[in-house]
């Protein structure tokens, strides 16, 4: 196999793992009402069904990057694929919502070793700036395809076979990816891998779990209850301890020095805001279409196709803009589209025809499609070779943290008054959700304005690191 063909074969294999993760996210969201009906789940349980996966993913991404740098990216990637595929099968067999949450956590252990490690593999073989920008544009487009396929395929499967079938489709794709990984991808690792940091890892886990617990369980326990106050205090203390410990550690799990680089820090913040907005919209929109508008899962999936189609179209355009003029313009478009779409949703009432929703969905899809390529490229392109794994893991962590916060915050707003019906909850508080998501879009615009309007000559002439 020629060098070029091997590169794109590796890109295809790595993109298959991203497709699985992207598909899994949107399929699970569209299945939530069906899961609630069969397993008698509350809104908070549905939040945990999504966020348990996201939290484990976020907590272990950094560890997976360190392990990949030390023991080999191919090896860790293959193990991750195996665990994710097995976890998908277990989720399809879950007898209760508690077991579903447990199996989702197991699935996430594998997912933590898939997307960031795959991105590190891709950036390791595509070294020229334009070549890398093109590859990352393809990477972002695949994410859009997964998002597009999720609601449509998931809706058809849920209405015809049942919600358990949404996990079955991961199994043959995952198995094929495992075999191809072993046959095609060459091993790579950092020249000077960092030492493991178990205390830093523990502090990350405690911080994320306590923070999300305090947000999700606030409606059930009340904001001023000892449980919620205690969760908030634990989150604050563990976060403070994490910063102090990592700043003194010779090889920290979270290299705080990366955040002194303006481009990386900005991409990290934008990723949190963008994925908070996107996953908050997905979670609330699923409940709205099926529980308030009383649509079937398949019809709800069809209705969200404008969002997915716009994402698929915008993703490669974002890659081209990134290659031509740098990250600032696609970031500005992303933030403006997310904010404007959310503000339009405030004006849509339950009595409006559902087709009115397609306009803000499409606008939001353009924004999300514009986001991924510049986030990924900005986060990794100006870092040394031996930080490929940790940089990819950090930016992936920011996405998962943003996603978990999006589900936690928006779900908690809707469930703020536990006695309300879903219709009453949306009528009273949905506007707050859209304002928060619009604020995230505005935040992206504010951060993006600090970027230069074009790539600097130094960057464009320097081969991007692997």
Main sheet specs: none
Structurally, how many domains make up the residues?
2
Structural class: mainly alpha
Secondary-structure element string: HHHHHHHHHHHHHHHHHHH
Tally of extended strands?
A: 0
* Terminal Cα span: 21 Å
Helix content: over 70%
- CATH homologous superfamily heading of the largest domain: MFS general substrate transporter like domains
Give Rg in angstroms.
21 Å
Counted by DSSP, the helix tally is 19
General shape: globular
* Beta-strand residue percentage: under 5%
Q: Determine the mean pLDDT.
A: 86
Stretches with pLDDT under 50, minimum 5 residues: 456-466
CATH architecture of the largest domain: Up-down Bundle
CATH fold group of the largest domain = Growth Hormone, Chain: A
What's the multimeric state?
A: single chain
The CATH class of the largest domain is: Mainly Alpha
């Amino acid at each position: 196999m020629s060098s070029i063909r091997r590169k794109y074969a590796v890109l295809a294999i790595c993109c298959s793992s991203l497709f699985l993760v992207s598909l899994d996210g949107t399929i699970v969201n569209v299945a939530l009402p069906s899961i609630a009906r069969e397993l008698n789940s509350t809104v908070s349980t549905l939040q945990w069904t999504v966020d348990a996966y996201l939290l484990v993913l976020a907590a272990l991404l950094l560890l997976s990057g360190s392990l990949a740098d030390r023991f080999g990216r191919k090896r860790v990637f293959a193990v991750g694929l195996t665990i994710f595929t097995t976890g998908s099968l277990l989720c399809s067999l879950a007898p209760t919502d508690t077991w579903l949450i447990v199996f989702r956590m197991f699935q996430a252990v594998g997912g933590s070793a898939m997307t960031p490690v795959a991105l590190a593999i891709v950036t390791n073989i595509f070294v020229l700036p334009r070549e890398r920008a093109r590859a990352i544009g393809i990477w972002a487009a695949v994410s859009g395809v997964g998002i597009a396929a999720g609601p449509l395929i998931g809706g058809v499967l849920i209405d015809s076979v049942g919600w358990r079938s949404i996990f079955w489709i991961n199994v043959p794709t995952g198995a094929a990816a495992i075999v191809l990984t072993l046959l095609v991808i060459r091993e790579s690792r950092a020249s000077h891998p960092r030492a493991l940091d178990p205390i830093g890892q523990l502090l990350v886990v405690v911080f994320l779990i306590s923070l999300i617990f305090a947000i999700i369980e606030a409606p059930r326990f009340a904001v001023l209850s000892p449980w919620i106050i205690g969760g908030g205090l634990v989150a604050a203390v563990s976060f403070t301890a994490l910063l102090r410990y990592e700043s003194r550690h010779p090889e920290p799990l979270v290299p705080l020095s990366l955040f002194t680089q303006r481009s990386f820090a900005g991409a990290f913040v934008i990723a949190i805001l963008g994925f908070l907005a996107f996953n908050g919209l997905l979670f609330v929109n699923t409940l709205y279409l099926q529980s308030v508008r009383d649509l079937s899962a398949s019809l709800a999936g069809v209705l969200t196709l404008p969002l997915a189609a716009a994402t698929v179209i915008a993703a490669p355009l974002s890659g081209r803009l990134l290659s031509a003029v740098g990250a600032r313009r696609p970031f500005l478009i992303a933030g403006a589209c997310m904010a404007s779409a959310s503000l339009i949703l405030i004006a849509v009432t339950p009595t409006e025809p559902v087709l009115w929703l397609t306009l803000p969905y499409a606008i939001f899809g353009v924004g999300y499609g514009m986001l991924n390529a510049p986030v990924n490229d900005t986060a990794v392109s100006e870092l040394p070779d031996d930080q490929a794994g940790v940089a990819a893991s950090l930016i992936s962590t920011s996405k998962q943290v943003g996603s978990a916060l999006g589900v936690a915050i928006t779900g908690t707003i809707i469930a703020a008054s536990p006695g309300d019906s879903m219709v009453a909850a949306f009528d009273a508080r949905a506007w707050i959700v859209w304002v928060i998501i619009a604020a995230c879009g505005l935040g992206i615009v504010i951060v993006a304005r600090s970027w230069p309007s074009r790539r600097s000559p130094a960057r464009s002439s320097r081969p991007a690191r692997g």
